[in-house]
Design a protein that fits this description.
This protein has about 200 residues and is of the alpha+beta class. It has one domain. The chain contains three helices and seven strands. The strands form two sheets. A four-stranded mixed sheet has the order 2-6-5-4. A hairpin with a 7-residue loop joins strand 5 and strand 6. The radius of gyration is 17 Å and the shape is globular. The two termini are about 20 Å apart.
């Protein structure tokens, strides 16, 4: 993914909340609960490629009484990611036999379909998240790209906004850092705050 790419993150701030938006509060949560991609206790940064998708991902479009804060992160250097929104597999991920190619391609498509399926928040969602969590932890901790280096994250289709794309950024705990800088106000959104964010947790 090239330097200069912009991604958005949105948080709702309820009337009783006292936190203020800054690089820490708008970044990845320090003590996260289980999420679609991350196991409990492992902090991933969830972002979207446009503000409208980010708005739907946190259901902020349904909470008109909440204050809405939007942060725009700019990628300052290129990173390697797996993109589940683009099929077939890129050449560096293909194996030598047709059977393996078909098997891997089918598995990747199934993963994308499962990840982009809406999950009902009924207290049992953590069970439905397990398959995607396993995939992400494998990519973040074990998988080695053919081109070398490490994977910084995963692009996947939005489960909440048709056509939207999200980027989840893995923890920067293996000797590399991702730096995002800059922010802007999106005029099409409800009250938002312009932030200057120059670091990613």
């Amino acid at each position: 993914m090239p330097a200069g790419t912009e991604v958005f993150r949105i948080r709702r701030c309820k009337r009783a909340d006292t936190w203020l938006p800054d690089a820490t509060t708008m970044g990845a949560p320090p003590t996260p609960s289980s999420g679609r991609m991350n196991p409990a206790g492992i902090s991933y940064l969830y972002t979207s490629f446009d503000a409208e998708t980010a708005l739907h991902e946190v259901a902020a479009h349904k909470r008109i009484t909440d204050r809405i804060y939007v942060a725009c992160f700019t990628l300052t250097s290129s990173i390697q990611v797996v993109d589940l929104t683009k099929l077939p597999l890129p050449p560096q991920f293909l194996k030598s036999t047709k059977n393996k190619i078909v098997k891997i391609g089918s598995s990747r498509r199934n993963s994308a379909d499962k990840i982009s399926t809406p999950v009902t928040k009924n207290g049992q969602e953590h069970i439905e998240y397990v398959p995607s969590q396993v995939v992400c932890e494998y990519l973040a901790q074990v998988f080695e790209p053919h081109s070398g280096g490490v994977l910084a994250g995963l692009i996947y289709p939005s489960a909440e906004y048709d056509g939207g794309r999200n980027l989840v950024v893995f923890p920067s705990n293996r000797g590399w850092d991702l730096e995002f800088q800059g922010a802007r106000r999106d005029g099409q959104m409800r009250p938002s705050l312009c932030l200057n964010i120059d670091t990613l947790v």
